[in-house]
Amino acid sequence: MNIFEQRIRESKQYIPAVRQALLDTYFSSYNQDFLQTEAGLLDIENNVFRRHDHALRHVIPWLNHQIDLAGRRVLEIGCGTGSSTAALAPYVRSIEGYDIHPQAVAGARKRLEIMGLNNVRLHVIREDELVQRVTDNAKHRYDIILLFAVLEHQTIEERHENLVTCWNLLAPDGIMAVIDTPNILHYFDLHTSKLPFLHMLPTRLYAKYAARSPRPAFARSFADQARKTDAELDEQVARWGRGASYHDFELALGPDYHTHLVADGFEPEILSWFPCTVEEELLRWYVEHKKFNIPPGFTRCVLNLIFKKTINPRQPAGQPAFAPPTGVSFAAPGQQQKIRDLEQQLEEIYRSKTWRAGSLMATPYRMLRRLFQK
């Protein structure tokens, strides 16, 4: 048993007290009938101990492979009820945590008190003051900055401003970790609506179709979508969580963003948490097939990425930091066979007379389109 598993076992003694503390704070504003449902009970379990245990079992050792945690100063954006905060606190010098939800921060403070962790300061902030408050409060640069399941809940402007601010506050040898953030480029919205493709749609169409979601609370929240402005709907969708992609990091950190990438979600700690799926392998195959300059980590359904402030000196400019060898699959054996079958079907389509004839017939239209675009 490693030290992190030992810590999980030792933390079990705090579960009853933490559960009651969160019921008195974070969950006090919830619909109490919902908390008795299967979904409500799962939400309680996730906040009380599951996210804490995931952080200890997967995230903390993953971070520790990139930077020695001892003596490090940490900034955590979106600390929530303190699951990851409490998991990381015993191994670092200090943590500054920020969140927009007062009840969540109240619950986090109670959790830390119960667990005897006193090297953490928590702050309640508004969305529009996050950057200013974090910058004003920073008396030093941070060695580790955590963005744990937070970027997907920000507007595009907030997300990019947040990334730039965090990057500027990072120590020269520090790391910025983006954790458990859904990839908007994937086909199924597992994070929010539980529907295929919805997160890819224009906001107004997204809001109209939301009623089909199997999540009742999500579907109901868009019942009055016809009376809302596009701007109001944009923010509502953002708060529920639409996802992020490599575009965000390229725009916020610059075109050489990939040269700072030192971990991309294909590490054992993350693969044991988020095993590869057929959808991920298909997207990775497509990126490789088209020879796009996109790091493989951005083909995963959930983004788990570590950026280091200093550029990797061994990494040639314009190349992704991590590139699994062509033909190497991280999917389970059964999924690998499905992928090989799909690849064969695609190749058969490309070689078919019907495909070639259709492509030939479309050539004049492509030429005209290019002409008009000029």
Description of the structure:
With 374 residues, this protein is α/β, with parallel strands linked by helices. It has two domains: 3-308, Rossmann fold (3-Layer(aba) Sandwich), CATH 3.40.50.150; 333-373. The protein has 15 helices and nine strands. The strands form two sheets. Strands 3-2-1-4-5-9-8 form a seven-stranded mixed β-sheet. Strands 6-7 form a two-stranded antiparallel ribbon. The longest helix has 27 residues, at 38-64. The termini are far apart. Residues 314-328 have low confidence and may be disordered.
Q: Would you kindly provide a brief summary of this structure?
A:
The chain is an alpha/beta fold. The chain has 15 helices and nine strands. It is globular.
* Broad shape: globular
Helix- and strand-based class? alpha/beta
CATH superfamily of the largest domain: Vaccinia Virus protein VP39
- For the terminal residues, how far apart are their CA atoms? 64 Å
Count of helical segments?
15
- The overall pLDDT, averaged over residues, is 88
- What percentage of the residues does DSSP assign to strands (E)? 5-15%
**SSE sequence, one letter per element:** HHHEHEHEHEHEEEHHHHEHHEHH
Task: Give helix % range.
Answer: 40-55%
Task: Please give the number of β-strands.
Answer: 9
Flag low-confidence runs: 314-328
Total domain units: 2
* Spatial strand order of the main sheet: 3-2-1-4-5-9-8
CATH architectural type of the largest domain: 3-Layer(aba) Sandwich
Largest sheet: 7 strands, mixed
CATH class of the largest domain: Alpha Beta
CATH topological fold name of the largest domain: Rossmann fold
Please tell me how large the radius of gyration is: 22 Å
